[in-house]
Every structure is written in C-alpha cells, then in structure tokens.
Write a structure and sequence with these properties.
single chain; 6-stranded mixed β-sheet; alpha/beta; 8-stranded mixed β-sheet
Length: about 425
C-alpha cells in the first residue's frame, strides 16, 4: 500500500474548490427539480415525434419518460441496444462521490429508479448504501473533508472505522482505515433493466432501428428535418443526440462540438460466493465493486491509465491491476475464480459535468451525453428532465428562471471549445 497515492478515483468531489454557496445550492436546486417535476401539465396534443440517435441507457430511459408524456419516439442505434457501457457496468445508482452540482440530480434519480419496478421495469433495484474507503493518511484527510461537505449539503452520510465497516463488508482487510457510508445510495442490475425497458417500449409502439448508422442530417435554416441513414431518412419534430462517446462525431455532422471523449472501462466477474459478502456498493483503492443478486462479485474501474477510444477488448494489464487492487482490500477473495470479464466505453467531458440541453445552432436539436461513467445511475432523472424540456418546447411553455438556473450549467456553450465548429 503506497502511503503517498490517492486512489479515491470514484470521488469526483474536490473539497478545496467547493464553497458555502455551492452547499446551499444543493438544497435549493433539489427543491427546484422537485417542483419542476410536479408542475401541472395538460395532456400533450398531436403526439410530436422525437428521433433519438443512440441506443444506450440514456436514450432508453428518456424514451420511457417521453412515452409517458405522450410523444411518439424512434430510436436509431448503430449496433445493438444497450450493448456498450450501458449494459456493462457496476449498476451504481448513487450520490456519494459526485460533485455538489450533480447531487440534486443524483438524489432525484435514485427516487425515480425506486419507482421503476412499480411500472413494470425489472431493475433489481436495492438501496444498500455506498461505502467508500480510505487506506492512507492522504485519503483519510480527503474523505473527511468530503464527509463534512456532504453532511452540510443534507446528504445522510457517516464515518466508519475498520471494525464498523465489517458489518457491511465482513471480509474487509485491516489496512482500510476509514469508511464514508451513504445510506441513500443504491444499485441495480444493468442487463435486466435494459432488456425490460426495451421489451416495454416495444409494446408501447416505439420504433427501434438497430444496426442503423446515422450518416448525416437533413437541415433547413435552423431546423433539423431528418436523420439520414444508409437505407432511409428518418424524420421527426425533435432530434436528440444521446449516443455516449459517439455524440462527438454526430455533433460534427451538425457543426456542433459536443466535447466528449471515449475511454475504456473494464469489469471483472468472480464465481458465486456466499451472499452478503459485500452488501453496499463499494469504492476505494482505484476500483468499484458490488455483489450481484445471484452472488457473483463484480469489480472494475478505469482512469487515465486506460486508453482513449472505442476499443472494448479486455487487457491482461487491467485484469492484473484491478485484481490486485481488489484483493488488497479483500484478501480473503484471492482464491476466488474469475469467470468472465467485460469492457465498455464511457464518455468523459473536460469538466466531468454532463452535456445536456439544446444544441447551439438548431431550434429542434438537443443533446444528453457526457455522463463520465455515471450515466447509468443518472439516466432516470436526466431522462425525465429531457422529457419535460421537450414537452415545454412542444407546448411553447417558457422554462422558468428557476429550472434554467439548474440546467444552464450543463449547456454545451459553457466551454470555449464547445462553440460552433
């Protein structure tokens, strides 16, 4: 264990950059999102048609809420639906670890995920919490400051010593000094969630276009008029780019620069072990981990050491690195067999904040991308939010200043490089 290295890679929060004003904004924005979600909206007339490019969890969840609002939806996907990182991830649905600006979105997303099972979506959602562990003095100091900020922002968290951590992870090694535990965080199972969403959306009459690549767009003045594919032109009233790291290339077709880059992330799966080996979602020492509802242990991660690009092959380097990090924390599991491995592609923005809202040059074009490896957990809230933004556009409702103050920091004009190409 290196005493000088900070491996709290899942802690995006930078305590030294946060302010008291940012803490108060968490509570204010939480209430603004709640009020926006519960505004009275008359039934939508005429079933406006939304064409979505990208078939991952962000698109599928957005389609789910758009259908509830009364839209007609077509989804174009160049491969199979949910086949990339959307279906190959740890299934985290969590707040802790995120920057303060994302906490209101993450909290509402957890609540929406909890409701999905009542709407026929098989998510295997469970609020088991989230344990983040520090192993050296540098990490302890950073985790303690994060605790103070999250607590001040109204997030129910507590600090645990090594013995207290064992009630959640009984086989954790003694070298783990301090744990930060979030009670509200949760987890679900990506495979059943994706398949269940697709099945239900098909029964609702959504049009799916698998293995269909968008090659260009038909445009006129400031309006997008169609998505050009190899075989046809798919026309709609509104167009949403939600293709993860591929959103960059799609944006270029519209002279938009959606500043995301692709990075590989890898995931390992062990044989089935005794249940309640790792109860909450676990992060620390440069990896994340959880136990599935069946009993397998998942652990994985990524980071700057990974390649940028679309290669989703597993590497011996990652398998060795992540396995070593995992067994440093949980020495008991050194003898457990790895039975499979996966790799997916996540999209990274320059400031690690999503790109969400209207495109710059097109009145009926929108984007929802750049979730920095957390799109799965945030998909419910961002899907619902996009469905309401599109409803307001379709009905000529003006966004009130409150909700604009919440989503404007996510607009793609916030960076110099996110201007017209």
């Amino acid at each position: 264990m290196d005493k000088d290295i900070d491996l709290l890679t899942m802690l995006a929060l930078k305590p030294e950059l946060e302010t008291k004003e940012n803490v108060e904004k968490v509570k204010i924005n939480d209430a603004i999102i709640h009020n926006y979600f519960h505004e009275n909206r008359p039934a939508l007339q005429g079933k406006p048609h939304v064409v979505m490019v990208g078939g991952g969890i962000i698109s599928l969840m957005t389609a789910f809420y758009l259908e509830e609002m009364g839209f007609r939806i077509s989804i174009i996907e160049q491969k199979s639906f949910g086949a990339a990182a959307s279906g190959r991830n740890g299934g985290a649905v969590m707040m802790m670890g995120r920057e303060l600006i994302e906490l209101p979105f993450a909290r509402h997303s957890i609540n929406l995920w909890e409701q999905l099972s009542t709407k026929g979506i098989n998510t295997h959602f469970e609020r088991k919490g989230h344990l983040m562990v520090a192993r050296n003095d540098i990490e302890v100091a950073r985790l303690t400051k994060a605790y103070e900020l999250y607590k001040a922002a109204g997030i129910p968290v507590t600090l645990l010593n090594n013995e207290e951590m064992k009630s959640y992870t009984p086989h954790i090694g003694k070298e783990n000094k301090l744990g930060l535990f979030s009670y509200e965080d949760a987890q679900s199972y990506p495979f059943t969630t994706i398949q269940s969403l697709i099945k239900q959306l098909k029964t609702k009459g959504l049009q799916f276009y698998p293995y269909t690549k968008a090659t260009s767009f038909e445009t006129n003045n400031r309006m997008i008029e169609g998505v050009i594919t190899e075989n046809s032109v798919i026309k709609g009233d509104y167009y949403l780019i939600s293709a993860g790291p591929w959103s960059l290339e799609l944006g270029k077709l519209l002279d938009e620069h959606i500043s995301v880059k692709a990075r590989r992330s890898q995931l390992m799966v062990t044989e089935i072990v005794k249940k309640k080996a790792i109860v909450p979602f676990f992060t620390g020492n440069g990896f994340y981990s959880r136990q599935t509802h069946v009993g397998n242990l998942l652990f994985g991660g990524g980071g700057p050491w990974e390649i940028n690009g679309y290669d989703v092959s597993n590497t011996s380097y990652a398998i060795e690195l992540l396995s070593n990090r995992f067994t440093e924390v949980f020495p008991t599991y050194k003898t457990k067999q790895l039975i499979r491995s996966f790799a997916g592609t996540v999209e990274i923005t320059p400031d690690h904040v999503p790109a969400f809202g209207k495109l710059l040059n097109w009145d009926n074009g929108f984007v929802s991308a750049g979730y920095n490896g957390h799109g799965y957990g945030l998909s419910a809230v961002m899907g619902k939010l996009m469905s309401l933004v599109l409803y307001d556009n379709a009905t000529d409702r003006q966004l009130c200043n409150d909700i604009k103050s919440v989503i404007d920091p996510l607009k793609i004009d916030r960076f110099t490089e996110l201007t017209k190409v």
